[in-house]
Amino acid sequence: MNTISKEPERHEIEALLPWHAAGTLSRRDADRVEQALAGDRELARRYDLVREELAETIHLNETLGAPSARAMERLFAAIDAEEARAPRRRRSVDFGSRISEFLSRLTPRTLAWSATAAAVAILLQAAVLAAVMVKDQGAPSGPGLASAPSEGSYAVVRFAPQATANDITNFLGAYKATLVEGPLNMGGQLYRIRLSETKLPKEEVGKIVRQMQSESKVVGFVAARE
Amino acid sequence: MARYHVRVFRFVVRLVRDESTAEDLISEVFLDVWRQAGRFEGRSAVSTWLLAIARFKALSALRRRSDEVLDEETAGAIEDPSDDPATALEKQDKSTMLRKCLAGLSAEHREIIDLVYYHEKSVEEVAEIVGIPENTVKTRMFYARKRLAELLKSEGIERGWP
């Protein structure tokens, strides 16, 4: 192959270097780039420049900070406002069915992205949290979470009336807990939370529950539950 | 949860260059997600869908903003270092300078660099988010990197490319 016919191919390979560095090329293209890099020192040098850019772009973005709690509060306020405008009985059903439909459509491909599990957590948690904040005593407002996993360690909790969505989110985050079901058919706005995905020793669960009980600003009642 | 929220926030804040505006916008993004969850067709990654919504909102906000976003020339003028000792030392730090020049790119170039390098989006996914053909994605990335090299050169860092 002469240099004239090689040059367009090299240009094409060079254009793919940023994606190769980020690991987002198809297997076939990645192999092509690897092959070209192995036999072209100048291309390999340019690839080093790309990797520098990638590292510093990540560094730059990671130093941008994070949104304040205000953003989430604003979101829940907006959701609450929409819920309040919707017909009372229908709104919980709609909310749950929308989230359920959304979740059911997540394909394995979409789950490949590392943070997608977190996105699911947002929506799932948002669904239950919104139900908490709506405090609709009349409707069975559990947002379709009957398929919530049963393994692990759980507790039942009633949040304090003054607790905001943000308080609850922070509380769950601090204990690495997840809202999985509620309100339960036990009355009193009780919710089931998962303390751990694995079964913890009884003493460990008791210790976590006692710590939670001390957070009276957020929690009105909490007890271990099988 | 935090990680996902943060990623969308960072994408938006890099576009609008204002944290308060970015926070308002991501609230709108997630509210739209809640409203449109039933319409998500699963043909692309959830993150791609969300970034596309976030991008649309960010650009709409920029258009609304009367004092227009800083363009790269303005940013460059503000950040243009004098030759005091501290700046001279900073110039020696290639990584710092690279980040400074990344921040000084135009919104269009920042966007594509972030999507490819930070948000790990493929050519096809960037095309979907930005709404341009795949070949244009590659070309735009090339010019973004070329512009970055020019900014570095103006700061005294010669990379030998392009």
Short description:
Helices cover 59% and strands 11% of the residues of chain A. Chain A has 226 residues and is of the alpha+beta class. Chain A has a 4-stranded antiparallel sheet.
What's the structural blueprint in terms of helices and strands?
The complex is a heterodimer of chains A (226) and B (162).
Chain A: H1 3-22, H2 27-38, H3 41-62, H4 69-85, H5 88-104, H6 108-111, H7 116-134, E1 153-159, H8 165-174, E2 178-181, E3 191-196, H9 202-213, E4 219-225
Antiparallel strand pairs in A: 1-3, 1-4, 2-3
Chain B: H1 2-16, H2 19-36, H3 46-64, H4 72-79, H5 85-92, H6 94-103, H7 107-118, H8 123-130, H9 134-154
Helix pairs in contact in B: 1-2, 1-3, 1-7, 2-3, 3-8, 7-9, 8-9
How would you describe this structure to a colleague?
- The complex is a heterodimer of chains A (226) and B (162).
- Chain A is of the alpha+beta class.
- Helix content of chain A is 59%, strand content 11%.
- Chain A is elongated, with a radius of gyration of 25 Å.
- In chain A, helix 4 packs across helix 7 (116-134) and helix 5 (88-104) packs antiparallel against helix 7 (116-134).
- Chain A has a 4-stranded antiparallel beta sheet.
- Chain A has 2 domains: 3-62, no CATH class; 69-225, no CATH class.
- Chain B contains 9 helices and no strands.
- Chain B has helices at 2-16, 19-36, 46-64, 72-79, 85-92, 94-103, 107-118, 123-130, 134-154.
- The model of chain B is unreliable at 72-81 (pLDDT under 50).
- Chain B is mainly α.
- Chain B folds into 2 domains: 1-69, Rna Polymerase Sigma Factor, Chain: A, CATH 1.10.1740.10; 71-162, Winged helix-like DNA-binding domain superfamily/Winged helix DNA-binding domain (Arc Repressor Mutant, subunit A, Orthogonal Bundle), CATH 1.10.10.10.
- At the A-B interface, helix 1, helix 3, helix 4, helix 5 and helix 7 of A face helix 1, helix 2, helix 3, helix 6 and helix 7 of B.
